[in-house]
Design brief:
Layout: H1 3-22, E1 25-27, E2 49-54, E3 59-60, E4 65-68, E5 76-81, E6 90-99, E7 106-113, E8 132-139, H2 146-153, E9 162-169, E10 186-189, E11 199-205, E12 210-214, E13 217-222, E14 232-239, E15 245-256, H3 272-283, H4 297-339, H5 342-368, H6 372-402, H7 416-425
């Protein structure tokens, strides 16, 4: 093959490889918010998420959720996914902002647990009992155990706050622990309050490690932690009497795309032509040929391999399209449920049943009565009226025609003297 033709093929192969890497991560829309223009299409709820708070639910705006307000203090708020994560490998990107007075206080938790909202709700790391999963805590955690922090971590965390990770297999009751901070498996300092911008925290779970990054900088990492799948994500916040306000802007869950079936083994460096051929068959179907044109066993095997490979890619493409359609239908279903609450639908259904009962009662009343007697009476009345008119109307008209009218002679004729007097009067 000419070198002038190989160069464009290498360029196309590189572009295709880059596009494949870019498509390697797939957004889980049912477990995410903040990726669209508005958090909620109708302003009442986030599709796929459950919102709760104490004593009042969090305030939902077009671009963020205010978990705890600037005033008053002593508030709790939480948001939880309604579906579980079904992937072993995932990445969670969370953006939030914390602001408050100089001595304000509060805490923010990012949960990944088995029972989710049903067990944890609006709890914090200091009020939760037993749970199964992981929680990432963001707060100024030197307030209660400043001396112990200095002993365990070498410094007090009162300066600006920090991030800590906790694990639980369901056997530890955290609220009864005298020093919760000592149970953290990883931590890093992070001054998160009053930055004037959202902070970005990324949690990443692969088959080899679990890591946390803050504002694109590493926080902590462990190759001994493998979190299970089928868990719920959630975010909870609590404010002190002098409150910090916690606002959540974005929560995105991405997972690796499903691997294609029958993936070929890695291509050795000395076989560029075969690599280009595989890239070609991923995008173009093999050409149809007559059986008589395939004479050797090698050619038959190659043709069968190419067709099976193309069929596999088509099946994967169809499966991805079905998954996308299913997620969109589920999202529209959730939007419909939020747009028309169950109470409103129940009220509408009861009113329709009442109207239906009235119509049935009228129909039964109409069908059950016999109107023959009423129609006979009406007919007799009309006949009597007709006979009366035929009898009395001609006689009345005849009397009117032959009755003598008053004659003009009966009136007095004015004399000449009277006419003069009337003229004088005029």
């Amino acid at each position: 093959m000419p070198a002038s033709f190989l160069s464009p093929l290498r360029l196309l192969s590189s572009l295709a490889l880059g596009a494949a890497v870019a498509r390697a991560q797939q957004l889980q829309e049912g477990l995410s918010f903040g990726h669209a223009q508005k958090l909620s299409p109708h302003g009442r709820a986030i599709p796929g998420w459950h919102i709760q708070g104490s004593p009042d639910p969090p305030q939902l705006l077009s671009d963020r959720v205010i978990l705890t307000p600037p005033y008053p203090g002593g508030r709790r708020g939480a948001i939880w996914t309604e579906e579980r994560l079904l992937s072993e490998e995932w990445t969670a990107d969370f953006e939030f902002r914390a602001s408050g007075p100089e001595r304000g206080g509060g805490n923010l938790q990012i949960w990944y647990t088995r029972d989710g909202q049903a067990q944890i709700g609006t709890s914090s790391i200091y009020t939760i009992g037993k749970f199964e999963g992981m929680v990432l805590v963001i707060d100024t955690y030197g307030g209660r155990h400043d001396d112990e922090d200095k002993l365990n971590y070498g410094t007090s965390m009162l300066q600006g706050g920090g991030i800590r990770g906790f694990l639980n297999d369901g056997s530890t009751e955290y609220r009864s622990q005298h020093n919760v901070d000592s149970l953290a498996f990883g931590h890093c300092d992070y001054a998160y309050r009053n930055l004037g911008r959202p902070s970005h925290i990324q949690l990443k779970q692969t088959r080899d490690y679990f890591q946390v990054e803050v504002d694109s900088r590493p926080c902590f990492k462990s190759d001994k932690i493998i979190l299970p799948q089928n868990y719920y994500f959630g975010v909870s916040a609590a404010s002190a009497e002098t409150p910090d306000s916690f606002e959540a802007y974005k929560f995105l869950i991405t997972t690796p795309s499903a691997p294609t079936r029958h993936q070929p083994p890695p291509i050795p460096p000395h076989q560029p032509a075969q690599h280009q051929q595989n890239q070609h068959y991923q995008q173009n179907p093999p050409a149809d040929r007559y059986a008589s044109q395939i004479t050797s066993h090698e050619a038959q095997f190659a043709d069968l391999h190419d067709r099976l490979q193309y069929l596999s890619h088509q099946i994967d493409s169809t499966s991805n399209e079905i998954s996308s359609i299913s997620s969109r239908l589920e999202e529209r279903h959730q939007e419909s449920l939020h747009k028309y609450p169950s109470q409103e639908l129940s009220s509408m259904d009861s009113r329709l049943n009442h109207i239906e009962n009235i119509v049935r009662s009228i129909q039964k009343d109409v069908e059950g009565r016999d109107y023959k007697e009423h129609l006979t009476d009406l007919k007799n009345t009309l006949s009597d009226t007709h006979r009366s008119l035929l009898t009395t109307l001609p006689k009345s008209m005849g009397d009117g025609m032959f009755t003598p009218l008053p004659s003009i002679i009966s009136y007095p004729v004015p004399t000449k003297k009277r006419r003069k007097r009337e003229k004088y009067v005029d």
